[in-house]
Design goal:
Structural class: alpha/beta
Shape: globular
EC number: 3.2.1.86
Keywords: Glycosidase, Hydrolase
Distance between the termini: 11 Å
InterPro entries: GH, GH_1_N_CS, Glyco_hydro_1, Glyco_hydro_1_AS
Strand content: 5-15%
Family: Belongs to the glycosyl hydrolase 1 family.
Organism: Fusibacter paucivorans
CATH class: Alpha Beta
Bound molecules: 6-O-phosphono-beta-D-galactopyranose
Length: about 475
């Protein structure tokens, strides 16, 4: 490829991604109410709470919650956005903290202090010509709604969510164009408390509850899309999938079929959001599992008419599966279980590094939906060790990102997959979602804060900072 062919399409949106609960801190400031993510501790109880097996209603002194202060983006957003601008960001993905806007979730009037905060954040972006990309719900449900109606297991959540969305669309209609309805919507099947504020009592039909909750989110997403287009027809609305293609452990047709089924568990959500109806395979499977979905009159029409404009997704790793239950006892991984792929290396957290898998995923998604893609999360979670001057030489991160960006470039330029942009995950160090700790870092900017919460919160660009700056200024040409 010569230099000319090497560069990304004009207007490609390079940038970074954050989520409110992992960066803002100030968890009870400005009238903010308590949210699910505020009560999920770090440490050994984190997974039992996130999966809904362990019930918590509030915070307690036996646990640690690094997200309560996080990196204090709430007070330092100006400094952080200026650093993103220095790297040349064209876009910044953030999410809205639901309980800043509706502290309990069921109020009729929004909290002005919360709305004003995001006005300030968007104004800072606009000042630097950074296009905001906004996730309406990123692992975030008001605790009041969890305790009163059981989170997304209740149909009432649709109204609360649509009310939130309408408030945001009206307020920011001239500042924000790109919206994502739910972060990693398929996460509700894997970690239902973080995905939907759902926890279970013993003896409950867990699958039934999860799929009914998923239906509520799918209807809410379509209803919000309808509201968005009513309020500003120029809005672009995307779905968001935790993606990562599944390989078959062997070429035995049984394994290949199993891999296809595993991918469909995730595609199911996007099939509804993008194609506008439950796919037949999903309807058949629900029936076989004895799951009966309660759908209201108008739901099918809502899903059919109000589909998304683009497909966004996170990609960190590929997965490997087998049809043989004995082989599957060897799976690893903390969110999506996977067999170890002998052809791949893995991160310190066992996430298998597969740049070509990103190209495969992009092709699979575009073949399936024929809508533009937006890669809204990708990156390497690693332990960074600053030298005596506080500088992090993160060549390992540069290697990971550059290989993935090259694979993305091949998908776009060689395979012809239309792609709006790329926002690398955790563009400044933030609290990790799966561990709740600071130790697992993704950023181009180091934040001085450790797992115990100690540190000055000082921001220091890492080696990858200047590297990404060059990637952006050359529009991918240096890759
Ligand atoms: C995705 C989430 C993010 C995020 C990322 C990395 O699932 O959307 O919120 O944090 O994964 O995960 P982790 O922080 O656990 O490394």
């Amino acid at each position: 490829m010569n230099k000319q062919q090497n560069t990304f399409p004009e207007g490609f949106l390079w940038g970074g991604a954050l989520a409110a609960n992992q960066c803002e801190g100030a968890y009870l400031e400005g009238g903010k109410g308590l949210s699910t993510v505020d009560v999920i501790p770090s440490g050994k109880d984190r997974f039992p709470v996130m999966s809904g097996e362990m019930v918590v209603n509030t915070c307690d002194e036996n646990h640690q919650y690094p997200s309560h202060e996080a990196i204090d983006f709430y007070h330092r957003y100006e400094e952080d956005i200026a650093l993103f601008a220095e790297m040349g960001f064209k876009t910044l993905r953030i999410s809205i903290s639901w309980t800043r806007i509706f502290p309990k979730g069921d109020e009729t009037m929004p909290n002005e202090a919360g709305l004003a905060f995001y006005d300030r954040v968007f104004d800072a972006c606009i000042k630097y010509k950074i296009e905001p990309l906004v996730t309406i719900a990123h692992f975030d449900v008001p605790m009041h709604l969890v305790q009163t109606i059981g989170g997304w297991r209740s149909r009432e959540m649709v109204d609360h969510y649509v009310k939130l969305s309408e408030v945001l669309f009206n307020r920011y209609k001239d500042k924000v164009k790109y919206w994502l309805t739910f972060n990693e919507i398929n996460m509700i099947l894997h970690l239902p408390f973080i995905g939907g504020g759902i926890r279970f009592e013993s003896g409950e039909n867990v699958e039934q509850i999860k799929y009914q909750a998923a239906h509520h989110q799918l209807v809410a997403s379509a209803a919000a899309t309808a509201a968005a287009k009513r309020i500003n027809p120029a809005f672009q609305i995307g779905c968001m999938l935790a993606a990562g293609n599944t390989y078959a452990n062997t070429c035995a047709p049984e394994d290949v079929f199993e891999a296809m089924c595993k991918d469909r568990e995730n595609y199911f959500f996007i099939d509804v959001q993008s194609r506008g109806a439950y796919p037949q395979y999903a309807l058949n499977q629900l029936k076989q599992k004895g799951i009966k979905l309660t759908m209201l009159e108008g739901d099918e029409e809502m899903l059919k008419v109000h589909t998304v404009d683009f497909i966004s997704f996170s990609y960190y790793a590929s997965r490997l599966t087998s049809a043989d239950p004995a082989v599957m006892t060897q799976t690893e991984g903390n969110v999506f279980s996977s067999l170890k792929n002998p052809y791949l290396k893995a991160s310190e957290w066992g996430w298998q590094i597969d740049p070509l898998g990103l190209r495969i995923t992009m092709n699979a998604l575009y073949d399936r939906y024929q809508k533009p893609l937006f890669i809204v999360e990708n990156g390497l979670g690693a332990v960074d060790t600053p030298d005596e001057n506080g500088f992090v030489s993160d060549d390992y991160r540069i290697a990971y990102l550059s290989e993935h960006m090259k694979a993305m470039r091949d998908a776009i330029l060689v395979d012809g997959v239309p792609t709006l942009g790329y926002t690398s995950w955790g563009c400044i160090d933030i609290v990790s979602a799966s561990t709740g700790e600071m130790k697992k870092r993704y950023g181009y900017i180091y934040v001085d804060k450790d797992n115990t919460g100690a540190g000055s919160l000082k921001r220091t660009p890492k080696k990858s900072f200047n590297w990404y700056k060059e990637v952006i200024s050359s529009n991918g040409g240096i890759l």
